[in-house]
Structure formats: C-alpha cells, structure tokens
Design goal:
heterodimer; A: mainly beta; Elongation Factor Tu (Ef-tu), domain 3; 2 domains; six-stranded antiparallel beta barrel; four-stranded antiparallel beta sheet; 3 helices; B: mainly beta; SH3 type barrels; five-stranded antiparallel beta sheet; 1 helix; 5 strands; 6% helix
Chain lengths: 207, 114
C-alpha cells in the first residue's frame, strides 16, 4: 500500500477541535494521482510509481510527454513525479488512482515542498546571527562580523555563513499530524504550517 | 466557494446575537472539570471587537471587587455556551480602552432606554 501523494497547497486557516481549542491548519488539495508507470528493481534498478497529476491542455504538452501518456492510455497531466516504494510487491497497475483515502485522521506525515523565496538576505535573517550594538558609535548593527583568521590560513574557510539568496529550496517538515481528511473535496488538513506558497506542489508521505 | 471557505463554514455559529463595543453582555462559558461540564457566566461591557472570520474576538471588561478584569473570547468558539445582550450602549469609539483609566461613576457607559 502506497502511503504518499502529491498535492497543492490551498492555504491556512483556523478550526476548532473537539475540546474547543483553536487549531491552526493548512489545507492541501490532493486530487487523484494517476499511475503512469510501475518501476521495479529488475527493469529499472529501483521500485517506484510514476504518477501524473494536475490538469493541463493537451496542446501545451510536448511530444515526449504526450507519448508517455498515450503509452499508458491515461489522460494527460501537468506534473509527472515519482513515488518511491520500499519493495516491489504492490497492487498498483498502470491507470490506477491514488487518492486522499490512503490517509487517516491522526497519521503523522512528512511534507516536502519548495519554500518561499526571500531574495538576497543578510546573516541575521538567513542564519539567525545576533546583531551588534546599536549605539555608542557602532557601525556593525547587522553585519556578520569577523569572517576568519589572519595570515594563517590567509583565506576564508569553505562553507562560511555569508549573506546571500535565501529560500526557494526544498524543505521537509519533521512530521506533522493530519487533523482531517475530506474525501469528497480531495482535501487534507494538516496541523501547523507547510513549506511553500499557495498553489505550490507538495509531497505528503506517511512516516 | 473555495476549499478554505468550505472548511471554515462548518465552524461558524448562528446563535450568537449582534453586539457592539459599549454593549453589556452576559457570556456563558463552558468549563470542563475532569468529566463534568458546567457553565460559568462573565458579565461586563464589550470594549473591543476585532478581526474577522473565524479569528474574530471580543473583549469583555468588568469590575470585580474593585479590580478591573478583562477576558477575550473567540466569537465562534465552541467553548461559549451562549451570549446574552443585557443592554445597548451609546459610545463614540470602537475601542473603549479609556474605561481602564476611569473609576466609579465615570466608568459607566450611557445606555439606550428600551
């Protein structure tokens, strides 16, 4: 049984649990993913399911992609992604659907997405450095400070934390709870926040 | 109606009366003690009503044994048993924080005679 699905982040809101306390939840819309190819160790070297999801007009696809869908005889999808499997025996065949019913309320899931881009950020925002003194003639309020030693080793060490582009990278949450699964709307409600902007693709897998 | 609104619509309450800052209200709060549940009332003047949607909150101020007490509630919270409007106040602002500095007769709010 596959315990993973791709979806789109809808947004965050607040709901109440059975004890009456307010909960911050993020909604993820995961419409059924269609299996396009079943990969196994003997032919491909690893076990995985290739799935397609998201609506797309057929004229916007290039020929290689169109070929993949016509070969599997399924409707074209916007995104093609893979779900890795731990072993080769699974009941999924080409054309099958994976939907939100694989998850139950209370499951702990990991969510992977692309974080929001923050642009060129300083070390305080990017690496949580402390700031320098603000008064008494200080010129190093948000500066990184010393970046290395003197004539030995005569260079800045590799991997030194410096200002630069922040965000826009692959982020995985350490494990969050599923609060609710709405089958008819293909929605999953997850406690807390989820990486990425609204509408961005996220990968949800059971721990 | 998008996905989020559909989720939220389940949690809105229809039994809460209309009330504004300046009104005196009686808030009946559900209190859970181990397995028992009882209702406690908190009566006072609404001094603040802010935010919108499910996040909307209001603050009630009362004087208890000469000490000002304020409590903030979520309007749509299921922990509220019911809200009763005692009277309607006549005020000229949305936030009645000036009441915090008033004592005795000056801390009253003019009310509409019904």
């Amino acid at each position: 049984m596959v315990k993973a699905i791709y979806g789109k982040k809808v947004g965050s809101t607040q709901i109440y649990d059975e004890n009456g306390s307010a909960l911050c939840v993020t909604a993820i819309e995961a419409k059924p993913c269609k299996v396009i190819q079943v990969k196994n160790t003997t032919s491909d070297g690893y076990d995985a399911l290739k799935v397609g999801f998201g609506e797309v007009k057929e004229k916007n696809l290039n020929k290689p992609k169109k070929g993949e869908f016509s070969k599997a005889k399924v409707e074209p999808a916007k995104y093609l992604k893979e779900i890795r499997l731990t072993d080769s025996d699974n009941e999924y065949k080409v054309g099958d659907n994976i939907d939100v019913s694989i998850f139950n309320v209370g499951d702990i899931v990991k969510i992977t997405g692309t974080s929001k881009g923050k642009g060129f950020a300083g070390v305080i925002k990017k690496y949580n450095f402390h700031r320098g003194p603000v008064t008494h003639g200080s010129h190093s309020i948000r500066k990184p400070g010393s970046v290395g030693m003197c004539s030995t080793p005569k260079k800045i060490m590799k991997g030194k934390k410096m200002p630069g582009r922040m965000g826009g990278e692959r982020v995985t949450t350490p494990g969050t709870k599923i609060v609710d699964v709405l089958l008819e709307q293909n929605l999953i409600l997850i406690k807390g926040s989820v990486p990425g902007a609204k509408g961005s693709v996220v990968y949800i897998r059971k721990v | 109606m998008n996905g989020l609104e559909k989720i939220e619509s389940k949690y809105y309450r229809n039994d809460i009366p209309d009330f504004k800052p300046g009104d005196k209200v009686k808030v009946n709060i559900k209190i859970k003690e181990e397995n028992k549940e009882r209702v406690q009332t908190f009566q006072g003047i609404v001094i603040n009503r802010q935010s919108s949607g499910l996040n909307e909150t209001f603050t009630v101020r009362k004087i208890s044994f000469n000490v000002g007490v304020e409590r903030t509630f979520l309007v749509n919270s299921p922990m509220i048993h019911s809200i009763e409007k005692v009277n309607t106040g006549i005020v000229r602002r949305a936030k009645l924080y000036y009441l915090r500095d008033k004592i005795g007769k000056k801390s009253r709010v003019k009310t509409v005679e019904q």
